[in-house]
Amino acid sequence: MHMEYELNKIIKIPVGLGERSYHIITGQGILGNAIEYLVPFVSGRKCLLLTDSNVGPIYAKKVSEMLREAGAEAFIFTFPAGEEHKTLETVGGICSYAVKCGLDRSSLIVALGGGVCGDIAGFAAAIYMRGINFIQIPTTLLAAVDSSVGGKTGADLPEGKNLIGAFWQPKLVLMDPEVLTTLPFKEIRCGLAEVVKYGVIMDAPLFAKLEQNTDKLNGVDLHFYTEIIAECCKLKAQVVAADEREGGLRAILNYGHTFGHAVELASNFTIAHGEGVSIGMSMAAELAVQAGFLDRAVAVRQRKLLEKLALPCKLAPGGDPEKIYAGMLKDKKKVGSRLNLVMPLEIGKVEVKSGFEPAAIINAVRCCCE
Ligand code: ADP
Ligand code: ZN
Question: What pTM does this model have?
Fold first, then answer.
């Protein structure tokens, strides 16, 4: 049974990681009301609030005031929005500014933004003075349900995305679903691809709930989103707690991602991550059907839900299956030359499989081309 969520209720989700344990706190309006949660971490300390040029003008004032009310000395650093700024140069700029503001080992970094901001802020926190405390305030759905949970931080290199980074857990995550009111719907849709993913990999009732409420999802019903965000964070927290460093179980979170990353790469990143994941899950399901792991009807069910959320399930005309396969082989999650792929067995259940013939993978990709 899934729990009922009261309107405007604050939900606390523990992430159990031994001495690195922390809480995700979510609820509508939390951005103005989190002082009690912040005090233990920020009171009497210097805090560098990192944000991007889209999010800063909307939310930085409110958050910096809240930090000050919680007893922090707050500084703000704004970097230009966009994945192209998720670089070592930005991380270096952040660290230099931190020195200028006098941040020491007891200070902390607060990330206010989407996945890009969280990744580089977390990375800066991991390396500044060999590591300082860090708080995440995700402002995209994708960051809320995915990148802000789990402690992966990093930056891109000219040679590829996320090639450098560190595992660095935050001390606290604050997620206010009201930030979705200013987020472009395209960005919300991208986050929904990850939400659907959680349903397929580990939670059939969640999947059914999404199917029954596509109108609320498309209409950005904040009450419903609060519930969904909390459920997804709980699921991810469960997986991360069982496997912090991706030795085993955590691999299931990569469902659709090996295909999806290759799709993003082949498009020169004109296809966004969430769209790539949606197409990637469709390809993975197709391969699972062809390999005899999955009923066709289940793959169709997944496709129908994705389509109702206006997410793509096929590669646009001109897509080249061989090129996608070549891109998959470059994926950094690959072990040696073997492609391990997360295969759905039914809604709510997946398994990592290997030993696929290249021709079988290429054929599944071809079946997902327009
Ligand atoms: P993601 O979380 O999808 O990995 P980004 O950090 O790149 O990605 O955020 C996606 C885009 O949305 C960026 O341009 C960012 O500045 C913008 N953005 C993030 N959160 C909000 C928000 N709550 N309102 C408006 N724009 C936002
Ligand atoms: Zn993802």
Answer: 0.93
